[in-house]
Amino acid sequence: MSVQSRTRVVVLISGSGTNLQALINARQAGQLPIDLVAVISNRPGVAGLQRAEAAGIPALTLDHKDFESREAFDRALQELIDRHHPDLVVLAGFMRILTPEFTRHYEGRMLNIHPSLLPRYQGLHTHERVLEAGDKEHGVTVHFVTDELDGGPPVVQARVPVHADDTAEALARRVQAQEHTLYPLAVEWFAKGRLRMESGKAVLDNEPLGPSGRPMETSRR
User: Among 8, 16, 114, 149, whose CB has the most other CB atoms within 10 angstroms?
Assistant: First the structure.
């Protein structure tokens, strides 16, 4: 991929697509030198597909319930993605555990965003788990995808404080606000040739990132 060319991006979703909308907004604002060439959902009729259609992006559905196995679905999904010749695949609320064969096919060119400070709280229900543990801070991580669930090398993290009176819903809203800034930033780095995955680590501006990626300052509110 030439650094000068526009990066072709396929976005995978399962729901409302708020992070997809953040990418659409950044693209429309001229922040991202990318072409959003397709949005694919494993669930029909979700709001994220409507967001894609409103932005003039091909909105496609591949219902995982139509397949007898995870492997069969992933093979069909890979075929559908590859028809669009992406440079980068972005998981934006895509609620599927991916097979190793699938993740290896896109290794180094697939990003995910996870609502925790990885490696803490991999998997689901992160906001509730943070509150149950009594943690003082929470956050969000953008990372490269590998065959380890939520275990690929982190690219960038944002931290938010946990308030004494927080509910899971209130905490989720503050984390999500950071997601909408962080994900376009990571995609911008990749599209401009600044970010890559090398020897199992995220590399930004030719410097390997640490186990938490690059930290970003956030509001303490």
Answer: 114
Q: Which residues contact 213 (CB under 8 A, 6 or more apart)?
A: 141, 142, 143, 153, 154, 155, 156, 157, 202
Separation of alpha carbons 98 and 64, rounded Å: 12
Instruction: Kindly state whether residue 151 falls inside one of the protein's structural domains.
Output: no
Tokens representing 18? 């708020």
Contacts by 120-129 with C-beta closer than 8 Å and gap 24+? Answer: 122/149, 122/150, 122/151, 123/149, 123/150, 127/168, 127/169, 127/171, 127/172, 127/175, 128/168
Residues 170-200: pLDDT tens digits? 999 999 999 999 999 999 999 999 999 999 9
Q: At what angle do helices 168-191 and 18-28 cross, to 10 degrees?
A: 40
> Residue 184 falls within a domain, yes or no?
yes
Rounded Cα distance between 95 and 40, Å, is 12
Give tens-digit pLDDT for 104-132.
Answer: 999 999 999 999 999 999 999 999 999 99
- 130 CB contacts (<8 Å, ≥6 apart)? 116, 121, 138, 162, 171
Catalytic residues: 114
Per the domain annotation, does 147 fall within a domain? no
CATH number of the domain enclosing 13 = 3.40.50.170
Q: What is the pTM of this model?
A: 0.95
SS3 191: helix
| Total domain count, the chain | 2
